[in-house]
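Researcher: Good morning. I'm working through a list of sequences from a screen, and I'd like to move beyond sequence-only analysis. For each chain I'm collecting a predicted structure so we can compare shapes side by side. This is the next one on the list. No need for commentary yet; just the structure.
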Amino acid sequence: MKQLMLGNAAVARGLFEAGCCVISSYPGTPSTEITEEAAKYDEIYCEWAPNEKVAMETAFGASLAGKRSFCAMKHVGLNVAADPLFTVAYTGVNAGMVIGVADDPGMHSSQNEQDSRHYARSAKIPMLEPADSGEALAFARIAYELSEQFDTPVLLKMCTRVAHSQSIVETGPRIEAPAKPYEKNIGKYVMMPGNAIRRHPVVEKRLQDLSLWAETALINRLDKGTNLKMGILTSSTSYQYVKEVCGDTYPVLKLGMVWPLPKQKILDFAHSVEKLVVVEELDGFLEDCCRSLGLDPVGKETFSCMGEFSQNLVAEKLGSPVHTGKALDDPIPPRPPVMCAGCPHRGLFYTLSKNKCIVLGDIGCYTLGAVAPLSAMEMTLCMGASISAIHGFNKALGAQSEGKTVAVIGDSTFMHSGMTGLANIAYNQSNSTVIILDNSITGMTGHQQNPTTGYNIKGDPAGKIDLESLCRAMGFRRVRVVDPYDLKACDAAVKEELAANEPSVIISRRPCVLLKYVKHSAPLTVDTDKCVGCKNCMKIGCPAISIKGGKAHVDTTLCVGCGVCEQLCGVNAFQSTGKEGV
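Model: Good morning. Structure tokens for this chain:
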């Protein structure tokens, strides 16, 4: 049956049709929907793991047991999972194991612009890269065939545009893959040095065999053209742009397997045209491989290694007509991202800003605490880094920083990779204050459950980690919980914990205001007779509050009645509308 399908949903459908049985992932845009869509198939066991390393190891365990498995992550998540990735290349698999990784050119929701193809080459693992939803489904199925044929995990590389665009797919039935019996094999699966050294030649031989497979694989295809003055080597979304711009004018070698590469196929193609042009987003990965073959392609000197491509960019670089389209008569005003109206993090960040704290931050929607007017975050590196960084910061500066520096981290990020940093503070005793922003969900990626929420991926009751007990068990005597809507309580907690002469944890706890089960208070309004236009309420950066005619104004369609602004108003100008929230 043919249907329009999101790229990530198509991957999930491919996993289903291929007989995948176990999926373990950590949510990360733009990969999240793969696992969410797969969870809709009862035939597949799906879970959110605490982090990507755990997810990959879980998928490996399922493969070892003889069931086809999968794990998904975004590009920076593959960094977290790099440890098992490089070694599972040596062990190989039992049943098929596929690893989904989604890159984010343009950094729509990421802290860097990383090219995951380098991981495939470094780890010596094959990588497939679909260019649309139809290929996403097909390549997911092919990945399992390759995995079991060549005894290897297979990387399936998505990117934002393929993951989040829709195209036609043709679905088929689920084919249950027979379970492969688990057999004890110490030489293959126990990677101590004596065994690993014997597995390395196996890995190299496997790459050679995969390269030969790539030479005739249908996923590496040649689109013929009429003009041989130029030939284009490309893959993924770049292929779509090239075809939209050039049609059938120039021959195009479209690669579905981007590692290992079909070297002879590339050489034959290059020799059939006068000029070879490589069109690829981010790094010159394919270009470098062409140069290693003795070719001299046009590549990154023409096409940037930064940002996303587009049809117009490709047209401009290839000397084709550029379509300017119709401009709007009026320019669209900029709309910088802000924390939602009623966001539970706002009161806490206001308190930190007011106290002139140095705030070392982490990855999550609360990173928006760095932007004006709060401007209450001074560092964001990677998942969990805030806690490790404050320990190093305070060890380096001692009393100079201990009384004014805090780390902030979300509940999901804390479970992902914050616990080890907290253990380091407890073990090596820096006088550090860590604030866990517990909004009872994984917020930034779209409200996924995590080990602190008490629910699994399907919303069923699950094991729930008690953050207070966990922190105390790790050696912290000072652990306290505050409501971030209560500014006085937040201020007292921050002041007291920074003044303490030992490590401490503050848990700022209130559910995300966008959760469906959260009942809002009545929205507020402003008594303009009382309002003096002091703009104190604007200091929290709430999108529901603005200034009109020199007076504060509340957009009641946005306001959730959190009351933080009321606490900043010295003239009691804010009052409830009396209408219950939803």
